Amino acid sequence: MTRMIIAGAQLGAIQKADSRQAVVARMIDLMEQAAARGAEMIVYPELALTTFFPRWYMPDWNEVDTWFEREMPNGATQPLFDRARELGVAMTFGYAELTPEGRHFNTSILTNRKGEIVGKYRKVHLPGHDEYDTTRAFQHLEKRYFEPGDLGFNVWRNEGVIMGMAICNDRRWPETYRCMGLQGVELITIGYNTPAVNSQMSAEGLEKRLFHSDLSLQSGAYQNATYVVGVAKAGVEDGHPLIGGSIIVDPDGFVLARAETEEDELILADCDFDKCAFGKSTIFDFARHRRIEHYGRITSQTGAIIDV
Ligand code: CDT
């Protein structure tokens, strides 16, 4: 039997001027609170160390690179790894990765309870655009600053649980969950930074954004009989609001814990991973029920083709 108390560590706003050291201090504070409440694993958001910088158009790549980490851990994040090891808390968090070859990725890492990195994921579904867009109320330049991830959707057996990661926009795509479901995943962690308004449709606001986030996370959990932890960076960053709504979802799709604020806030759930087995061996027993002879379009075709 594998049980684990999982904490989601929602972060409130991080302003452009905030240092990584200040953010790491907030992350450690949340980790200490989580450990005091029995948590053995903590999940932080996408791009957890900085403001959501893809909202800013930067023509100068030297400036862009200041938002990226060249190694992990590094000087700013070592205290987080040290505290995680001392407390025996596994963790996952997102950051902007600049590789030695000069490649840019929107990345998350997974550690064990000894503070050792056991897994890395690079965001596959990059939303937004790659040039300054005058028609938008604000920019979303992920396609400018990041390459699509090149590692695929892997899973790792970490602390007795089969774990996988995805990042923000990935949560809206059923393929994300199914690729990990096909590897028996029991826990999917997904950090996000989601603007509270649509830059291309002013009528779409917070309520619909939160609904779509819940809908995606809950359906991904249910359809793959896995726990899903979605964790926001929330609040108003330099005038730009991000949704909160961090949730922990069980393998039936029910929400076990939900953040109530748009600030630094912990959510916790006691997760019994044996509960993944029922769905995986009945309605979502993939080996018995999937019909791959009819799914060819999923990997052979990208956009919709209307031919009727
Ligand atoms: N960071 C990120 O991927 N944000 C996107 C914004 C798209 S607008 C709904 C997201 O999917 O939340």
Q: Whole-number radius of gyration?
A: 19 Å
Helical run tally: 9
Q: What string, H for helix and E for strand, traces the elements in order? A: EHEHHEEEHEEHEHEEEEEEHHH
Strand order of the largest sheet: 5-4-3-2-1-14
Q: Based on helices, strands and strand pairing, what is the structural class?
A: alpha/beta
Report the strand count: 14
Instruction: Report the sheet-strand fraction.
Output: 25-35%
How far is the first residue's CA from the last residue's CA? Answer: 52 Å
Description:
The chain starts with a strand and ends in an 8-residue tail after the last helix. The protein has a six-stranded mixed beta sheet, covered by helices on one side. It has one domain: Carbon-nitrogen hydrolase (Nitrilase/N-carbamoyl-D-aminoacid amidohydrolase). The chain is of the alpha/beta class. It contains nine helices and 14 strands. 4-methylsulfanyl-2-ureido-butyric acid is lined by residues 46, 127, 168-169, 172, 192-194. Residues 46, 127, 168-169, 172, 192-194 line the site of 4-methylsulfanyl-2-ureido-butyric acid (CDT).
